[in-house]
Design a protein that fits this description.
Blueprint (H helix, E strand, L loop, with lengths): L16 H5 L14 E6 L5 E7 L7 H17 L13 E3 L5 H7 L5 E5 L2 E4 L3 H9 L2
Antiparallel strand pairs: 1-2, 3-5, 4-5
Helix pairs in contact: 2-4
Amino acid sequence: MKDIEVKFPLIEDITMNVAKKYGMIQPGESDTKAVRAVFFVDPKGMIRAMIYYPLSLGRNFDELYRALIAMQTADEFGIATPADWEPGDDVIIGPAGSCGTAKERMEDSEIDCKDWFFCTKKLDKEKVLKAVLKK
């Protein structure tokens, strides 16, 4: 690929110092090659997620993008996302104690409570993408 602008920091680690400090050397594979690792670091400098790939396994960039959008959505809307969540899918609302309490706490009434501890709601795909892609 050419003429691609990378708008986020990448680390070049020729000396392997960073790889050694973060445990990115795969035992038995190589002393001179690090595993392929992705660290999601939030604006406060906190590591939010890490995904490690061995040298022999290709990376899934769709999954990396999905994870990033899911974390940004959780932050923006104060919700959680289930496994394999994609924008437009239902999101999880934090434990409410009861369905009635959950509905009172949320701005809308489109909440589906499966039980007292597990409620979901719809979150429009366009609303999600508009909110998280503006960043």
